[in-house]
Design goal:
- With 175 residues, the protein is α+β, with helices and mostly antiparallel strands.
- Helix content is 34%, strand content 14%.
- A 5-stranded mixed sheet has the order 2-1-5-3-4, sandwiched between helices.
- Strand 1 (7-13) and strand 2 (16-22) form a beta hairpin.
- The protein is globular, with a radius of gyration of 20 Å.
Length: 175
């Protein structure tokens, strides 16, 4: 076998420039796990159905098990490891814990990335819309009740903050 099938790839991964080489058949999940040693992205079905491998590519939730790594050349890729200092993700992690939305944890990285997309893209989502948006992420443990409650907890808290008055008005003082 020759190296003629190896392709160079450059992308931004979790806010850092990355240069590497990949075979054209290498999917993004394998690139992250095997070449970048970022194992937070889980691989479930390897057909793009379960959502365990969901991450962001140019801000869009993407199934990394069916996305060729080479197709992401020049893109901004954010895996679950890239959300450590993200306020929205921290709110979601706390809500997932409080609402017991975690059990075995296998689906959790992909579920959190999808949940973050819901919270940032659909601030007025109700339970039905949250469930619809989660339909591409499978969880065999929780039954989704805690997951939906966790997402709604963050959405509701953000709505409450948006409706609270900023401060008390200043009274004019006359002499």
């Amino acid at each position: 076998m020759t190296d003629t099938f190896i392709q160079p790839i450059e992308l931004t991964l979790n806010r850092a420039k990355v240069s590497s080489v990949v075979e054209p058949r290498t999917n993004l999940a394998d690139f992250l796990r095997e070449q970048q040693m970022l194992c937070g992205t889980n691989i479930g079905c390897e057909q793009g159905v379960c959502g365990a491998c969901t991450l962001l590519v140019d801000g869009v939730p993407t199934r990394s098990c069916i996305t060729p790594a080479i197709a992401c050349a020049g893109s901004d890729v954010q895996s679950i490891e890239g959300f450590d200092n993200d306020a929205t993700m921290n709110e979601l992690r706390a809500a997932f814990s409080a609402e017991h939305a975690l059990q075995c944890g296998y689906c959790t990285p992909g579920m959190l990335v999808t949940a973050r997309d819901i919270v940032t893209r659909l601030p007025d989502a109700d339970d039905a819309r949250v469930r619809l948006e989660l339909s591409g992420n499978l969880c065999r443990c929780t039954g989704y009740v805690g997951i939906v409650r966790a997402i709604r907890r963050v959405l509701d808290a953000r709505r409450a903050l948006a409706t609270e008055p900023v401060g008390t008005p200043l009274l004019a003082v006359t002499a």
